[in-house]
Amino acid sequence: MNDLLLLLPEIIITAVAFVLLTLDIMWRGDRRSVTLIPWLAVAGAIAALVATMNIWWGGAASNTFGIATDAGNLVPMLAVDTLALFFKVLSTLTVALVGLSAVDYINARSPFRGEFFVLTLLAGLSLMLLSAATNLVMIYLALEFLSITSYILTGYLRQDTRSTEAAVKYFLYGAVASGVMLYGFSLLYGLTGSVDLATIQSALTEASVSPLLVVGTVMMILTGLGFKIALVPFHQWSPDAYEGAPTPVTAFLSVGPKAAGIAVLIRILTVALPAYSVNWTVILSLIAILTMTVGNLVALWQTNMKRMLAYSSIAQAGYMLIGLAAWTSQPSGGAFDGVNGILLYLFAYLFTNLGVFTVAIILENKMGTANISDYAGLIRRSPFLSIALLIFFLSLIGIPPTGGFMGKLFVFGAAVNQGLYLLAGIGILNSVISVYYYFGVARQVFFTSGPDESPIRPGLVMGGVVALTLIMTLLIALYGQPFIDMANNSAQILAANF
Fold first, then answer.
1. What's the domain range around 470?
2. Is 279 exposed, middle or buried (0-12, 13-18, 19+ CB in 10 A)?
3. Domain count within the chain
4. pLDDT (tens digit, 9 = 90+) per residue, 226-265?
5. Where are the alpha helices (DSSP H) in 110-236?
C-alpha cells in the first residue's frame, strides 16, 4: 500500500476541517452555514472512518513515519499499526456521533456554529495523531493540540459564565499537568539520549538505571496523561468542566481525550518501560483503586446529571486502568492479557457513554435543565429514551447482556489471571456501589411522577444516534466475538516488541 494512503484518514480530516472553515467564512449569515456545515463535518468523519477500515482490512503491515536527519537516519514519529488503527476508529466514531448529537444544541445556543464543527474535527485529528505517536516530542505536540481544541470547545458558549469558568479551570490544571509531564519526558531523554519509545526501551535495558528514578519518571508522566484520562488525584478539573461545558463537548471529553490518553499510556509503558512493569504495576493499581473509589463515592451525592456522569467517567477510567496494571511483558497465556480488555472496554464505553449523553442532550434541549430531579416521570413522556437510558446504565455498571459487561469481564479477568485478586475484588465492589446512583436516576425515570407529562420526541437524527448506540451496546455482548477478535488483533502489536 502506498505510504501516503496510510495517512489518508488524517489527510481527510484535515482537508475537510479547512474546507469547512473556508465555507463558514464565505457563508457567514447564510442559511447554508446552519444546514450544510454540520453534515459535511459528519461526512468527513465517516469518510476518515472508511479510510481507516480500508487500511485495516487491507492488511497493511506496521509502518512508521518520521523525520529524516542529515545523516540519513529516520526519527520515528507516527506508527500505522493495528493499535493506532483501533484508536483511529474510536476517534472518528466519536467525532461523527458527537457531531450528530450537537446539531440542534449548537444551532440553538451559539451564533458561531461552523467553528464548532471545525474544532471538533481538529480535536478528532489530534486524537488520531496522539494515539499513533511513538516519539516523546510527537506525543507532547499532539497532546497540546488536543488540549487547545478542548479548552476552546469547553468555553464555547461565551454568553454562559459557567462555560467560561469551566474552560479557565480546565486550562489552568492542564498547563500545570503538561509541564510536569514534559519534565518526566526530559528525564527519560536524559537517561537514554533518545525520544523514540523503542530506542528508550533498548537503552534502559542496556544501562543500569535506578528503579526509583524510573518510578519518579512514571509518576510525572502519569500526571499529564492522568489529567487527560481524569485519574485521581488529577481529576479535579473534570466535574466543573463537564458541568459547565456545552453538553456535546462534555460527551466528547468523556470519551475522546480519555481514549487517547490511555493509548499513549499503553505505548509508553509497554513499549518504552516494559522492563519496569513490576514497579509501575503497583503505582497503577493504587491509582486505579483511588480512581474507582473516589469516582463512585462522590457520584452518590450528585444532583446534576452532567456532574454525576463526570464522576461516573472518573470511575470508569479506574476500571480501565486495572487492565494496564495487569499487563505483563511475559503473559501467562489465556484470553485475558489486560490490554485487549482495555480496548474492548473502550469500544463498549464509547457507545454507552455517548448514548447516555445523547439522551441528556435531548432532554436538555426539551426541558432546559440537566438536574436529575427533572427526569421524574420520563417513562410517561418518552418510553424509548427511558428504556435506552436504563440499558446504558446497566452497561456502565457491567451487567449482562451489555458491552460494559464484556469490558469488565476481560479487565477483571486479566487482574485475576495475574493474581491481582484484591484489585479485581475492589473493582467488583465499586461496580456494586455504582448501582446506587445509576438506579437513583432510573427511580426518578420509572417510579416518580413529574409535573409535566407532555410527550418528548427526540427527532429523527437524535433518535437515530440513541438507537445506534443502543444497538451497539447490546451487540458487543450478544455477538461479541468480532469485537473480541478486533481487540486481540489490536493488542498483538505490543507482543511483537518482545
1. 276-498
2. middle
3. 1
4. 888 889 888 888 888 888 888 889 999 989 899 999 999 9
5. 113-132, 136-154, 161-192, 197-206, 211-229
386 vs 218: CA distance, rounded Å: 43
Nine cell digits for residue 151: 479548552
Low-confidence ranges of the chain (pLDDT < 70): 1-3, 29-34, 59-62, 65-75, 109-112, 158-159, 277, 328-335, 493-498
Residue 360 lies in a domain: yes
**How far is Cα 441 from Cα 220, in angstroms, rounded to an integer?**
38
Which tens digits make up the pLDDT trace of 254-311? Answer: 898 999 999 999 988 888 887 776 777 888 899 999 999 999 999 999 888 989 999 9
Residue 284 lies in a domain: yes
**Quick check: is 285 in a domain?**
yes
* Residue 256 counted as domain residue: no
pTM, full prediction:
0.91
Output the DSSP codes for 60-103.
PPPEEEEEE-TTS-EEEEEEESHHHHHHHHHHHHHHHHHHHHHH
Q: Record the cell numbers describing residue 336, joined without a space.
A: 485475558
Q: What is the distance between the alpha carbons of residues 46 and 378, in angstroms, rounded to a whole number?
A: 33
Rounded to 5 degrees, φ, ψ at 398 are: 105, 35
Hey, what amino acid is at 84? A
Strand partners, 79: 64
